[in-house]
Write a structure and sequence with these properties.
By secondary structure, this protein is of the alpha/beta class. Helix content is 30%, strand content 24%. The chain has twelve helices and 18 strands. The strands form two sheets. Strands 1, 11, 12, 13, 14, 15, 16, 17 and 18 form a nine-stranded mixed sheet that branches. An eight-stranded parallel β-barrel has the order 2-3-4-5-6-8-9-10, surrounded by five helices. α2 packs across α3, α2 packs across α9 and α8 runs parallel beside α9. The longest helix is centred in the middle third of the chain and has 19 residues. Keywords: Amino-acid biosynthesis, Decarboxylase, Lyase, Lysine biosynthesis, Pyridoxal phosphate. Pathway: Amino-acid biosynthesis; L-lysine biosynthesis via DAP pathway; L-lysine from DL-2,6-diaminopimelate: step 1/1. This is Diaminopimelate decarboxylase.
Amino acid sequence: MQAKELVQLAEQFGSPLYVYDAAKIQSQYKRLTSAFSKVEKLRINYAMKALSNIAILQLLREMGSCIDAVSIQEVQLALHAGYSPDQIFFTPNGVSLEEIEEVSALGVQINIDNLSILEQFGTKHPNVPVCIRLNPHVMAGGNANISVGHIDSKFGISVHQLPHLVRIVENTKMNIVGIHMHTGSDILDIEVFLYAAEILFDAAKSFKNLEFLDFGSGFKVPYKKDDVETDIEELGKKLSKRFNAFCKEYGKDLTLIFEPGKFLVSEAGYFLAKVNVVKQTTSTVFAGIDSGFNHLIRPMFYGSQHHIENISNPKGKERFYSVVGYICETDTFANNRRISEINEGDILSFRNAGAYCFSMSSNYNSRYKPAEVLWLNGEGHLIRTQETFEDLLKNQIPLPVIATA
């Protein structure tokens, strides 16, 4: 999207504002499917926790995507957006047996990631198709909080517990139809991914009635100019060849599944905020915006770097600014970043704001959550209105009138 278009959207819908470029989401989806075009059966399950607006879900459904959900509420949102139960995978962590049973009753494919729930579910529902999430004990990911396949991770059943797992399956006569892994997010070294894939292939040999193998996702996207990213095309070439060979060994054409979230929507997102004040101190020039980590927490939570542009003055002389928010504690988006000269009232654009940005926003400091807009076919479509004071009061119950002495 062009700076001029983004400024116009900020003027039309106000700030702060999330904007998503539909064309970028579509091109990323096509890029991934093209990379694995040599696989006979390929399924993309969009990890909707990245961005769960139903308009985005509908856009991806039209392209042929299915859904990866991590809560029953996400399952219900996907159903509301028009997905059928067989297009939804439920991949939770640490949820109750009751929640898994409730999702299973909807006809959604369930994925179980611990031995306790696996045995309980298999004993009660031996005929229900189940996928098992394994922990390959492979460290991958750009941050400790998003590396989920290592030995100390809470996610998945340890591959070293495979004999115990197989014993549970044999005792309960469960119907295991899939094996799943997810090593982490921001994977750069595809050799690490391929190494983990070999662990999954080896484990799959213990189950005779598989229909699919789910390799998770975690592909890295660029966050700044000349940034590195996962070479999807190279991964597609190497993994497709190995997957097809394994299917021949297994004696059956299995479905290859990925569950990308960030890869599909991160680069499509722009977060727009207005500069409230430019504040000069003895050592720093602060650009204070009309937002904070209540709307975009990733820089404070993960230390992530989102490229920031002054779209009101894109060709201005660059100066150093620390971009900060209006939350009443340390609330920093960037320290001493080179940005085109900023004046009060300018609109700043934060790139890569499509994944885990709005979905992690909050009402901290009792601020409203911003609106969301989808840029589709050269036009901005409002897909979520900005919250109002009534939204803050919703579900709150005041005390009854209390008589005082």
